Amino acid sequence: MRAAETQLKEVLSDVFGVEPSAIDDEASVDTIEKWDSLNHLKLVLALEERFGVSLNEEQITEMLNYPLVKAVLEEHGVEFS
Question: How far apart are CA 1 and CA 37, in angstroms?
Fold first, then answer.
């Protein structure tokens, strides 16, 4: 299985239409043009499917940048090395 970080970058890349290499700790709603409310919902669904998690409303609303997305997934036991 690929590393969780690689999988996460692939999900963000697919949802937002950017290269995986463009996803770093600075990636956020402010730096990714297509990170709008609709694509945020698509991101939530894609993350739940890819990582087999169920995100609650609080987690969904706090995931506004790459480090916070990782932190929420870590709360569900996803390990990033």
Answer: 30
